[in-house]
Specification:
It is a single chain. With 689 residues, this protein is an alpha/beta fold. Helices cover 40% and strands 13% of the residues. The strands form 5 sheets. The chain has a 6-stranded parallel beta sheet with strand order 10-9-11-12-14-13, with helices on both faces. Strands 1-2-3-7-6 form a 5-stranded parallel beta sheet, sandwiched between helices. A 5-stranded mixed beta sheet has the order 16-18-17-19-20. Helix 1 packs across helix 3, helix 5 packs across helix 15 and helix 19 packs across helix 24. The protein starts with 7 loop residues before the first helix and ends with a helix. The model has no long low-confidence stretch (mean pLDDT 97).
């Protein structure tokens, strides 16, 4: 006997969700109604009966998290947010996919209350959900480490709905493999097995046993068959509810529940037809559906009494949950004032007030910026306890392991190099760049910590959608990408990025940061951690670069100016005839070129430009002071030279590389490809003319 209470009112609320999905797509003329129609009972079960939530406080810390990985079926979630009183109203559902609506084609974090993360690229939401589940474990260890398992105010579950498309995308497999390795018992993945994608029946391209695959990963797996072996259709919500409740008792494995459905059920003539996946249903089909379900044949005509009752039940559940949770949370605050202060700061997205004081100061010498970054992270470990992260199997090369901290892995998976602990801060993503980026985004959107992830810059191609989603979502995930140019050397062109840095600058709402030496790297990290509403790409060198002598009398400006994005590193001997602009490891080339020009009597200013976006955020007067519009400029960056005229003005030329590299010593490649002081000086003289 199931413990689920499922009344006629519940069934009616589910049917409201079905007809609203049909009406909304019909009104706008495009969208994805079929899955939202057939998934309505599953989504309603989660929202109205199972998940902990408070519609009046959608970001309540004690809530469970929900991710709609099949983001095209956004109506599956929007209708539940409407029914359960999260702030969406009937007009919002009717405004689906229209200008300035709260119901865009795919769920967007920060736009609609109750949306935990932006989803749309298939499979990414599964990886986001893994990130949320990892965030839950890390958060309880950061803020409440003494609590017994399952008894912390920070303990909660993560639920995700995915479809066939999600299961076919490799990123879901990457993330699911890691979830099993992490023993994420708080993660529940519901797979809508409806066997339909845009091209029709998935059997033309997808034949595997997905449940068996998840069992092989090490997940706790179940199957609920609404089709009864394709004989009759029965929406077995009680069976699904009991499985989800029983699965909670398995705390050392993530949970996979395959639910076999028919897309569009109970549409009278189009259920199971792939046309309902991504097209409106048509007036005749909607009229027949409404007649079948007992609805008035008018658009958006719903029984408001059912909606009111559903909202009242959701509010009552929330009141009961809060009555139990709120006193425990206040007791936790009183008993843990230090952690409570940390939590308040992190929730406000504020960096520590004394962050700069924790930064290391590097003496003049020679050091790769990737190595400097590693030392900065170790120095920040104590000052920024919410910071954690790691690499896609490249920690030793990316220098992303903080000194003296444990790894975020189950203790039994410790190796002779890495010790696992629940409160560990070193993340091991394995060779899974795409999943890594989405997991990091999930952690960031959860908002309870700050995370970074890392690989080689050339392999940012494997994870390109993830900084874009972070930028679209206005969340400050940090992407550390090292081995930034042909300076990689002997590994050859497969590992030498050429177009990557400039192409990242084309992406809106992301800071592309390429520090020129060790001390710029330190201040770059500080500014990244102070940024609240967009991600950063921190681009670092493999090869050593000079750590500049910025002491008084050196003639070089201090590295604290890094936060301005661009600054005058070295002033010309008199009014500058040309400005040499250096980024990253090529800053040294700009300095050497200026020395050559000055020796020839040509006054040359050197500007360090670690971050174009930070520089463009300064006022126009400052930008003009640093890079006067009337003065010729030569940019030195070991990447494609296109784009610099657009960024810095028409009288700008660039020294760069517009072809693939070769397998040879990095310094030799700079010489062979003309990224040299001599070439920059010659370009400057030609510009001066």
């Amino acid at each position: 006997m199931s413990n689920l209470t499922w009344t006629e009112q519940d069934a009616k609320a589910v049917d409201i969700a079905r007809v609203l999905a049909a009406d909304a797509v019909e009104k706008v003329g495009n969208g994805h109604p079929g899955t939202a129609v057939s998934l309505a009972p599953i989504a309603y079960l989660l929202y109205a009966k199972l998940m902990k939530s408070d519609p009046s406080d959608p970001r309540w810390l004690g809530r469970d998290r929900f991710v709609m990985s099949a983001g095209h079926s956004s109506l599956t979630q929007y209708t539940q947010l409407y029914l359960n009183g999260f702030g969406l109203e009937l007009d919002d559902i009717a405004s689906l996919r229209t200008w300035e609506s709260l119901t865009p084609g795919h769920p967007e974090f920060g736009l609609t209350k109750g949306i935990e993360c932006t989803t749309g690229p298939l499979g990414a939401g599964v990886a986001n959900a893994v990130g949320f589940a990892m965030s839950a474990r890390r958060s309880r260890e950061l803020y409440d480490p003494q609590a017994a398992p399952g008894e912390s105010v920070f303990d909660h579950n993560v639920y995700c709905i995915a479809g066939d498309g999600c299961m076919q995308e490799g990123v879901s497999g990457e993330a699911s493999s890691l979830a099993a390795t992490q023993d994420l018992g708080n993660l529940f993945l519901i797979y809508d097995d409806n066997r339909i994608s845009i091209e029709g029946d998935t059997k033309i391209a997808f034949s595997e046993d997905v449940q068996a695959r998840y069992a092989a990963y090490g997940w706790d797996t179940y199957h609920v068959d609404f089709t009864n072996g394709f004989t009759t259709y029965e929406e077995k919500v009680a069976e699904l509810y009991d499985i989800l409740e029983r699965a909670k008792q398995v705390t050392d494995k993530p949970h996979f529940i395959k639910v076999t459905t028919i897309i569009g059920w109970p549409l009278p003539t189009k259920q199971g037809d792939h046309s309902v996946h991504g097209s409106k249903l048509g007036g005749a089909e909607i009229s027949a559906l409404k007649a079948k379900l007992g609805f008035e044949d008018k658009p958006f005509a719903v029984d408001t009494a059912v909606v009111d009752a559903t909202r009242a039940n959701a509010a009552a559940r929330a009141k009961e949950l809060r009555a139990e949770w709120d006193p425990r949370f206040e007791a936790w605050r009183a008993a843990n004032p230090g952690q409570a202060e940390l939590l308040d700061r992190v929730l406000a997205k504020e960096a520590p007030a004394d962050l700069d004081a924790a930064l290391p100061v590097f003496e003049p010498g020679s050091m790769a910026t990737r190595a400097a970054s590693g030392k900065v992270l170790s120095a920040l470990a104590e000052a920024v306890p919410e910071l954690w992260g790691g690499s896609a199997d490249l920690a030793g090369s990316n220098n992303t392991t903080m000194a003296g901290v444990n790894s975020f892995i189950p203790a039994e998976r410790s190796s002779h190099e890495f010790t696992g602990a629940p409160g560990g801060r070193t993340l091991h993503f394995g060779i899974r760049e795409h999943a890594m980026g989405n997991i990091a985004n999930g952690i960031t959107m959860d908002g309870l910590s700050r995370v970074y992830c890392a690989t080689f810059l050339v392999f940012s191609d494997y994870m390109r959608t993830t900084p874009r989603l972070a930028a679209l979502s206005h969340v400050p995930t940090t992407f550390v990408w090292t081995h930034d140019s042909v300076g990689v050397g002997e590994d050859g062109p497969t590992h030498q990025p050429i177009e990557h840095v400039m192409s990242l600058r084309l992406m809106p709402n992301i800071d592309v940061v390429r520090p020129g030496d060790a001390n710029e790297t330190a201040h770059a990290w500080a500014q990244i951690l102070r940024t609240k509403n967009h991600p950063a790409a921190l681009i670092l060198s493999r090869q050593n670069v000079p750590t500049l002598d910025r002491s008084e009398g050196s003639g070089l400006a201090g590295a604290e100016n890094t936060v301005l994005g661009g600054y005058v590193l070295k002033e010309a001997s008199s009014e500058a005839k040309v400005v040499l602009v250096g980024t990253g490891s090529e800053l040294q080339v700009a300095l050497a070129a200026a020395e050559k020009l000055e020796a020839e009597g040509i006054p040359a200013r050197v500007v360090s430009l670690p971050c174009v976006e930070w520089f463009k955020a300064q006022d126009a007067d400052y930008q003009e002071q640093v890079l006067p519009a009337g003065t010729p400029k030569v940019v030195v960056e070991a990447g494609v030279p296109v784009g610099w005229k657009d960024l810095l003005g028409g009288n700008t030329e660039a020294i760069g590389i517009d072809h693939f590299g070769a397998s040879a010593d990095g310094a030799l490649l700079f010489e062979k490809y003309g990224v040299t002081a001599e070439a920059a000086a010659a370009k400057a003289k030609a510009l001066i003319g």
